[in-house]
Design goal:
The complex is a heterodimer of chains A (205) and B (199). Helices cover 36% and strands 17% of the residues of chain A. Chain A is an alpha/beta fold. In chain A, the strands form three sheets. Chain A has a six-stranded mixed β-sheet with strand order 3-6-9-12-14-15. A five-stranded parallel β-sheet of chain A has the order 1-4-7-10-13. In chain A, β14 (171-173) and β15 form a beta hairpin. Chain B is of the alpha/beta class and 199 residues long. Chain B has a single domain (2-187), classed as UDP N-Acetylglucosamine Acyltransferase, domain 1 (3 Solenoid). In chain B, the strands form three sheets. Chain B has a six-stranded mixed β-sheet with strand order 3-6-9-12-14-15. In chain B, α1 packs antiparallel against α3. The longest helix of chain B is centred in the middle third of the chain and has 19 residues, at 61-79. The radius of gyration of chain B is 17 Å and the shape is globular. The chains are: A alpha/beta (205), B alpha/beta (199). Chain A binds chain B through residues 77, 80, 82, 100, 102, 117, 119, 121, 124-125, 141, 143, 145, 159-161, 163, 174-176, and chain B through 78-80, 97-100, 115-117, 139-140, 156-160, 172-174, 187-189.
Chain lengths: 205, 199
């Protein structure tokens, strides 16, 4: 968990302050970023679920339980994010600082960037949540639902409603969604926080 | 007053998913369900608004409005749920999840359901949408303008509805179009738990 959290802090500070680097920024980002707060809280909660299964009620799990019980609603209200505790989140994931995220996927791979006002959840009357691969870029106002897989390196353009599998490296956009490009390297998108993307050229507007 | 309690009871009934009559369970439901709290605050505001006609309760109204304003600000700022009093919402309204909900200048029938990031109606637009009974409005959906939405319509996630929709249909996409008629949304809504029989 600690290595994952330090990877998150490095990612957040490099996205927030791309020109500057250093341990000071990696420390400062903890008090400047709401998304990091939510992410850290989710990691602690996920860790707690593992401890509970392994060791039952001990001093550690009781302490964590109290922290989570009293800390959850302040965090939720402050950020308006709700991230399911059962989600396995890889190292170095970015959840937007602007919040309004309702996330309940099975897995989020490392290097994924999720912008604000995104919903990821189950389809009505089903129980299997979606799986988000590594290095995925998900724009604002997206909905991803159903028992689906978003492949590694896929790009989900802003305002997309995805309920079908997305192949690795593909670009989907629109509502109902269409595959705009079969292969696209989204490394440039993932390096900044700009999220207004032109649908045709995939350049910043 | 009676209308308020009847509507509030119907709203609580939508959020219950256990077959018990214990008042502690009802309290627990109100404590946990953020959307239910917002709906109850809205009902309280509507009760105050209808109470303005009755001269007998005028001394109580300033306290009531103060309480309502405080609660509504909390619902809006902490949970992002805004149910304006200009909206007319029927009994049994269920907000599944908090965040980014705006219901303004519209008329909504009974037993409707909305998800997060849903926008119904617009500010400065008195001729808002009119929505029938038992409509399921999915997450991130937007209903704008003078749209008439029939009863038991299902609006898919992310749909943007601006035109009239016939009843019992499934609406998908931006701009929204009817993809299926005779769709029954009762199958995908959780059934109301049956009341236990009196022993």
């Amino acid at each position: 968990m600690w290595s994952a959290l330090s990877a998150d802090a490095r990612l957040y500070s490099s996205l927030r302050w791309p020109r500057q680097k250093g341990t000071l920024n990696n420390a400062l980002i903890w008090v400047r970023s709401r998304g990091l707060l939510v992410l850290a809280f989710q990691r602690v909660h996920h860790c707690y679920l593992g401890y509970r299964l392994k060791e039952g009620w001990t001093a550690r799990t009781i302490g964590l339980r109290l922290l989570l019980a009293f800390g959850r609603w302040p965090v939720v209200m402050f950020s308006k994010c709700d991230v399911a505790a059962s989600t396995e989140i890889g190292d170095g994931v970015y959840l937007s600082d602007r919040g309004q995220l309702i996330l309940g996927p099975q897995r989020i791979g490392s290097g994924t960037i999720i912008h604000d006002r995104v919903t990821i959840g189950i389809r009505a009357n089903e129980i299997d949540p979606p799986v988000i691969g590594r290095n995925v870029w998900i724009g604002p106002d997206c909905v991803i639902y159903g028992n689906i897989t978003i492949g590694d390196g896929a790009t989900v353009l802003p305002g997309t409603v995805v309920s079908m599998n997305v192949r690795p490296g593909a670009v989907v956009g629109g509502n109902p969604p269409t595959v705009l490009y079969a292969k696209f390297d989204n490394a440039r998108l993932r390096r900044t926080l700009a999220n207004a993307i032109d649908r045709r050229s995939l350049e910043w507007v | 007053m009676n209308e308020f309690f009847a509507a509030a009871a119907a709203d609580i009934e939508r959020c219950r998913n256990h077959n018990t009559r214990s008042p502690w369970y009802t309290l627990a439901v109100i404590w946990h369900e953020v959307g239910l709290q917002a709906v109850l605050v809205y009902r309280f505001g509507r009760m105050l608004r209808s109470g303005q006609r009755n001269v007998g309760v005028w001394p109580l109204l300033p306290f009531g409005w103060l309480l309502y304003a405080l609660a509504a600000v909390i619902m809006r700022r902490c949970y992002g749920i805004r149910l304006a009093l200009s909206a007319e919402i029927g009994k049994g309204f269920w907000i599944v999840h908090f965040g980014g909900i705006e219901v303004v200048n519209c008329r909504i029938g009974q037993r409707c359901t909305v998800g997060q990031q849903t926008k119904v109606g617009r500010e400065n637009d008195p001729d808002g949408p009119q929505i029938g009974d038992a409509v399921l409005i999915g997450v991130h959906a937007q209903i704008m303008g003078p749209a008439r939405v029939g009863s038991s319509v299902t609006i898919a996630p992310g749909a943007r509805v601006t035109l009239n929709v016939p009843e019992n249909s499934l609406v998908v996409g931006d701009p929204a179009r009817v993809v299926f008629r005779g769709y029954r949304n009762a199958a995908i809504l959780p059934a109301t738990p049956q009341q236990p029989r009196a022993a």
